[in-house]
Amino acid sequence: xxxxxxxxxxGPPGAGKGTQAxxxxxxxxxxxxxxxxxxxxxxxxxxxAGKQARAVMEAGELVSDDIVIAILRDRLGEEDTARGVILDxxxxxxxxxxxxxxxxxxxxxxxxxxxxxxxxxxxxxxRISGRYTCGDCGEGYHDTFKQPATEGHCDKCxxxxxxxxxxxxxxxxxxxxxxxxxxxxxxxAYYDGQGVLRRVDAMxxxxxxxxxxxxxxxxxx
Length: 221
Ligand code: AP5
Prior knowledge:
By secondary structure, the chain is of the alpha/beta class.
């Protein structure tokens, strides 16, 4: 049996981690694990972890390592992850990266690649302030860069309800970018040291970036 692939997507808010993870999920059958989505689900469900995370997320700061690692460990224990996973938004601190190494050592899995999506901060505010998602299936869109083929109807599920995130405002985005540079950007050197780092210019077209990521997955995962 081959070892399930683990692909890490690193990048600041708005870099396109979620957009690309969903495309890779469809193309390669890997499972997207977004700690942001898992935390938003915990907030919506009113769990103890969700109650603690809510204000932190609304302020654009990072939720505590203990909460995030516990949520990810539970999700990684589910059966579908045996197909291989795309980690979208995890790890975000050195403590999380070390915890992931320990978790993977326990399950015999290895990181195929950690991809740094390289973007300019200024463009991220535009990307995030124009973002919205389908309220039914979660497909992501943008006011300018990615609109549904038929206005008001989701391409994937034909849903007609769309929503915007509570933390997608200019003030919170600035705080999220600051948190990225202070706490997450050091992981680029961490994975370079492990010999698994790949860099992708993520300022271009969504389809071109997907092509570059597809080549990395085909080769390394
Ligand atoms: P999370 O949900 O992970 O948000 P984020 O990292 O801030 O990333 P985003 O979802 O905002 O951006 P993305 O890179 O996925 O971009 P997208 O593809 O949507 O985290 C939210 C919060 O949860 C955190 O602030 C923190 O509080 C907490 N949290 C989560 N994980 C945590 C962890 N591990 N530890 C601690 N706390 C944690 O694209 C954005 C928009 O741009 C879309 O509209 C899209 O259509 C468009 N777009 C995408 N690519 C392109 C392109 N190439 N050109 C033009 N437009 C594009």
